[in-house]
Amino acid sequence: MEKPLGDGKWPTMEDAVAALKMQDIRYGLIQEALVNCLDRRKTVEVLIAKGKPSVPGKDTQLKSLYELSDLKKIYLDSLVENENGRVDYHNVKSFEVAMDGQVVGEKILPTDGEDGINVLGKIVKAEPGKERPIKLGKNTRWDQEEIRILATTNGKPTMVNNAISVLPVHEVRGDIDFKTGNINFPGNLIIHGNVTNGFIVNAEGEIVIMGDVDASDITAGGKLSIRGTVQGMDKSVLTCGGDLTVKTINRATVNAKGNINVKEAIMYSQITAGKKILVEGGKGWIVGGKICAGESIAARIIGSKLGAATELEVGVTIKPSNEPETEMEILQSEVPADQPQEQEETVGYTYLLNLEAAPKNAVLDKSRIIKVKETLYPGVKASINTASCLIRDETSFVILYYGAEGKIVSQSYR
Fold first, then answer.
1. Alpha-carbon span 176 to 196, nearest angstrom
2. What pTM did the predictor assign?
3. Selection from 297, 269, 261 nearest residue 373 by Cα
4. CA distance 295 to 314
5. Domain extent listing, the chain
6. How confident is the model over 260-272, as pLDDT tens digits?
7. I need a surface site. Which of 49, 209, 314, 341 has the fewest CB within 10 A?
8. Cβ(287)–Cβ(304) below 8 Å
9. 306-347 pLDDT per residue, tens
10. pLDDT digits (tens, 9 = 90+) for 96-115
11. How far, in Å, are 80, 271, 385 from residue 317 at the CA level?
């Protein structure tokens, strides 16, 4: 709205509505905004009409009709402690299994979506969902209508590579050591003891380890659950195609396609998660090493009083070490070692000397965050998307975001 010329009068509500109708604005009038605009009598731009956006349809989806979300819970619910608080692992029950012919999943057909309407009153057609092929996993088949997925054998339903497979379950009633040798099993694996130094365990499905992992390599096609501690000794490599749950990780390399949930601490390790890294129980401590997540990192304490070098990365493209460097990594490598930090943003990598508080109403990317529930120590380097900051001062109860200006900003969440 602009100031009237000369002795002209400011428009009334009737004048404004008439002017809008002349422009064919017929839908989504924001009455309150228009009234406020007229009352202020200033030259100002205000949103006074808003259409209803269309909602695109959903593509073909695979829906699990069996318990696939928490393998560990199914297994550990049957644990019984004696009066001394010790668990008799020899009496632990196995997983529940699907039987031959049982429905384990179904195909959800594409949806049409929901049409929208613009401020001119015209329909905005929704984009319908697309037909996507749903692949079958091992030991499964379609029903006659090719809608439901049925098991063709008795076994544990497992999501591997976006397909439901029904895999056998193998149990090792003790440690993985020289008595058992390395394990390579085409199904789900339960280990009732520890995986001792130097051994290799591979399973096509999910793996549950009731004890510790000592300087050994573990690969699971699905989820990986470790009740104890990983003592990697800078040798262990853990890889899983789903979520990882573990008590503590010390000096190990870990790669998980899903979330990584750590009960106590991550210490001096190289950790990569396709989604979230959560270290919020017990000590909830991350110290040393490099921690990378596609979506977010959350912990109680990050870094140490001694300034242990700890790197956090969120929102970057995560690739195996043998794949080409990302564009951001190449840009970083081109920065001369003696170039001032303030100039690094000329190659697309903003480097702050310390955190800046986000102004009120700031536009923030809240899909990728670093959350510290207690203390964030100096010496921690935090990166979100293409921005980075080096923590110089101890701070507490803070969430780090990627700000609109391409810098990392902070907000207190207390």
1. 6
2. 0.64
3. 297
4. 6
5. 1-50, 61-167, 262-414
6. 999 999 999 999 9
7. 341
8. yes
9. 989 999 999 865 454 444 443 333 333 333 444 444 333 333
10. 568 888 889 999 999 999 99
11. 43, 14, 9
